[in-house]
Amino acid sequence: MNKNTIKAFIVAVTMVCLSNVNTFASNLDESASLVKSKIAQVNNSLNFNVWVDNVASKKVVIVVTDADKNEIHREYVDTKGGKFAKTFDFSSLADGKYTIEVISQNVNVIESKTFEIKTNLITNRDVVVATR
User: Are 94 and 42 in contact (CB under 8 A)?
Assistant: First the structure.
């Protein structure tokens, strides 16, 4: 091999190595900045806490839909603080199935929770006996 071939080979190997390092570093940056979320019911009530973390510079939206995919509520998460926490009260909703979704800017669902509201009616029947 001549010197020019060896130099070209060394340059090519170096470029491949640097490319892999850049890819690895960008993957680390992406995983470190992944949006994290949690949706939790509050004590068997019709309230749900929604937490979102690592929202800085990401567009994140919280969407509530019914069983027919009709949008009930949409709320954009403020990216200034990097975190979001809110309690949603669903006591005014009619009986039915609903879904809370935390969605990222790429329309990827980060977290989802489906719940059903059922009204339980208790009927008490009393007997009154007339006395004569």
Answer: no
Strand boundaries in the chain, DSSP class E: 36-41, 47-53, 61-66, 71-76, 83-89, 96-103, 109-117
- Model confidence, pTM: 0.65
Phi, psi values for residue 53, rounded to 5°:
-125, 155
79-129 pLDDT tens trace: 777 788 999 999 999 999 999 999 987 778 889 999 999 988 887 888 888
86 closest CA partner among 35, 42, 47, 51: 51
Cα(111)–Cα(39) distance, integer angstroms: 7
**34 touches 64 (CB < 8 A):** no
Query: Structure tokens of 7?
Result: 């130099």
Q: What is the distance between the alpha carbons of residues 64 and 72, in angstroms, rounded to a whole number? A: 5
In the numeric block, which tokens belong to residue 60? 């994140």
- Whether the Cβ atoms of residue 67 and residue 97 lie closer than 8 Å to each other: yes
CB 80 within 8 A of CB 52: no
